[in-house]
Amino acid sequence: MSxxxxxxxxxxxxxxxxxxxxxxxxxxxxxxxxxxxxxxEIGTMGAFFVSTLTLTGLPVWxxxxxxxxxxxxxxxxxxxVVVRPIEHRNPGAVIVALIGVxxxxxxxxxxxxxxxxxxxxxxxxxxxxxxxxxxxxxxRIARLGVIGVLVVVLFLLWLLFAKTKIGLGMRAVAxxxxxxxxxxxxxxxxxxxxxxxxxxxxxxxxxMLAPSAGLSGxxxxxxxxxxxxxxxxxxxxxxxxxVVGGLLIGIVEAVIVGYVDFxxxxxxxxxxxxxxxxxxxxxxxxxxGSERVERV
Amino acid sequence: MDLPIRVARGSWQNWLGRAVLFxxxxxxxxxxxxxxxxSGLGLLADALIIAIAVTGLNLITGYTGQLxxxxxxxxxxxxxxxxxxxxxxxWTPFITDNIWTPGWTMxxxxxxxxxxxxxxxxxxxxLKGIYLxxxxxxxxxxxxAFFKYDRVAGVTGGATGIKxxxxxxxxxxxxxxxxxxxxxxxxxxxxxxxxxxxLSAGLIRSRVGxxxxxxxxxxxxxxxxxxxxxxxxxxxxxxxxxxxxxAGSLYAxxxxxxxxxxxxxxxxxxxxxxxxxxxxGAAQNWGPFVGAMFYVFVNDFARSVxxxxxxxxxxxWLVDEGTKIDGLGGVTFGVLLILFARFVxxxxxxxxxxxxxxxxxxxxxxxxxxxGAPSAEVLGEAGAVGPxxxxxxxxxxxxxxxxxxxxxxxxx
Amino acid sequence: xxxDALLTVSGLTAGYGPVEVLHGLDFTVGEGEIVVILGANGAxxxxxxxxxxxxxxxxxSIEFAGSDISxxxxxAIVRAxxxxxxxxxxxxxxxxxxxxLLAGGYTLKGSVEEDLDRWFEVFPRLSxxxxxxxxxxxxxxxxxxxxxxxxxxxxxxxxxDEPSLGLAPLITKELFxxxxxxxxxxxMSLLVVEQNAGMSLALADRAYVLETGSIVATGTGDELxxxxxxxxxxxxxxx
Lengths: 296, 412, 239
Description:
The structure holds three protein chains of three kinds.
Chain A: H1 2-32, H2 39-55, H3 60-89, H4 93-113, E1 131-134, E2 137-140, H5 141-163, H6 165-175, H7 177-182, H8 187-213, H9 221-234, H10 239-259, H11 268-282
Antiparallel strand pairs in A: 1-2
Helix pairs in contact in A: 1-5, 1-6, 1-8, 1-9, 1-10, 2-3, 2-4, 2-8, 3-4, 3-8, 5-6, 6-8, 9-10
Chain B: E1 5-8, H1 12-35, H2 38-63, H3 71-86, H4 102-121, H5 129-148, H6 153-156, E2 162-163, H7 181-205, H8 207-217, H9 219-224, H10 229-255, E3 257-258, H11 267-280, H12 287-307, H13 328-343, H14 347-359, E4 360-363, H15 376-379
Parallel strand pairs in B: 1-4
Antiparallel strand pairs in B: 2-3
Chain C: E1 7-16, E2 19-29, E3 34-39, H1 45-52, E4 58-64, E5 67-68, H2 74-80, E6 82-85, H3 97-104, H4 113-122, H5 124-128, H6 139-151, E7 157-161, H7 169-186, E8 189-194, H8 197-203, E9 206-211, E10 214-220, H9 221-226, H10 228-235
Parallel strand pairs in C: 3-8, 3-9, 6-7, 7-8
Antiparallel strand pairs in C: 1-2, 1-4, 4-5, 9-10
């Protein structure tokens, strides 16, 4: 029983990271209908930045904060400089540009920080004896911390969207850009803000993942793919869906690794495929996604 | 002289123009074979193989509008099927020792991939856009995971893969065994690319091709007009998969080994094919070739910049001899992709056509039918328009109004 | 009508890409006036609305309340006091009725409670549905919502793009009555583009007729209603 709880908590912790990244993807998709291919790599870059800052002596929490600002700026820059001019001319070419950004950022990380893996300290107490006991299971504080971060981020996002004017603007732009223009919302600024926010969240996710997974250039490659699956599963325009999707996949992964011997960790993708197909064939827009009515 | 000069399609001037184009490319190929080094020729062969896979992708994504990130899965399946058959890992009682001759494995790869492709086409009936793209992407990674799976390692090679096979040039080619291996694969890839391109172009011009474009432009309207969505989506997915399977098969035979963990069998491969397609020009006959060439050679150039920056024009003055900058090649290529998407958003072929159309415009010949009206043949000749509303309709001099806010048709 | 017109448009040219839709329009809207631009499909009505609101590139002169807005961005134009009720309502379907109105007041600084209360009073049906998603409202209700939302920014000029489109005649009558009230009781000036000649000309103080991008006739609402060519072309009356 205690092993089960330990595994579930770990699953939720990993799931929280997927959920965070999926949230970032959804925030961008809702406002621009684009999937930010480079989201994971910007996160990786942020994580390396955290590493550099902590090595100069800054406390971890501050380094993460500053790295999140970097992630915000880079992501916002991508929207303004790369996506917007291209979307004007040919929306289909945006994918190619974002793949270019993916590649450039991924390799820039190698260029600046080299190709060797390194360690990233956790912002939570993470020594061998830093755990609590829940129902007899040893649960690392660091892992609980990650879940806690997700909860805090969700709360802050809720505050932003439901209670602030800017949040109202973002919801309006996500729903109808033309009408947003007509009521005087500066759509361009809202888009930049949305992308920037997603970038910051992506960096946060990476900073949460790196301490346990090790910090290397390929840190976010697999999580990005899984987070994309989570976002689609939940419905690409639903933040709630992103979180549910992320946590769900985290738990499925824990179950497969722990209890399904004949599959093993490497077979996560085939399982994902089956689940994805199962859900999407019943609800083609994801669990919580909204159906777009098409007028012919 | 009044520009643009109008040339009727099918006229001798049109054929002359085509001959010049093919002649130019042919000359290029001839020089490659006779003058290039083995590694250069090998790179060219790789580009041709990628072009084959992209031709398949162009059918399902470019012309039928179903965004597929699953091409790498079929590429991998083709590669593994070939490898497994050539090394006798699959039980085929009608073949001696179960060991197939390499040439036939390509056909087997095509058939297997076609069948699986049609099955993959079924979800496409329910899923649209990014949702479909993601499912195909997961499919790709799932296929790769399957080939790595240790419980089927006996057949698929598992984590270590399958090695130790080859495809030597047959005697009738006049080439000599191992020494001419690269040349053999060059000719083989070129030949198959030509065949696949001709078949693809033929398909696009046919009624099926028009149905494909109708599905891309407005699925509901197409269905209402009698297009069988099920048939089109499954068959075209099957065809595109089969073509990718042949490409994968070539890839495996050329490399003489298959291993599940290589990037081209996964997300990276699917993305490569998509980028090559868009960069070359979606829904263009020459798009896959141009896109693949761009991808392979520009990538190679970028890599060489990274390995020896002091030699390059841009950075030579900044950097000392002998320094190597990790990742510079990748950053260069990434930036080039961004610049390309920004300044050549409709792909190389689409944009080149646009420019050429300012000088020479190919117009449909208008054979008159019984009533003096343009015959039905001609009405289907207007040419496919790229999925990204590219200026590929050769009767227009520039892309349809993609003005800042609204597409035409919303004006009242 | 006092002194200089509130909105003066001269030589307005606009289009989409290589296609020019408006070929140099001249029209004005005075204070406290309802001006109707009548036009069939394809005449350029929505293009005109888009041009005035700054949504598409345009050439020519557009003067509003003494300042030149021909080069201004959409949000600046809203702040200057021009608000649009777009064609097809354009409500924020995923947002509640109340949020729609709050979005309408986006450009206002400070509290918008009073404005919110005022417009809920003018449109009591909206008040009943204030927490419902806008997408679940009927066509007529959404049209009222779109009008109320546009009014939230405290405009001086209201642009209405085919407000009667898709609405039953009874609802349209009510809608036009509301538009009239805006002029009479709230001091608004309105520019309405419409296909529905009968009701809109009855409401209008002045009107223009737009045909394929050019203005071909102008007069008071009554004059045009009585005109034979107009009657034939837009009212289906055969002489």
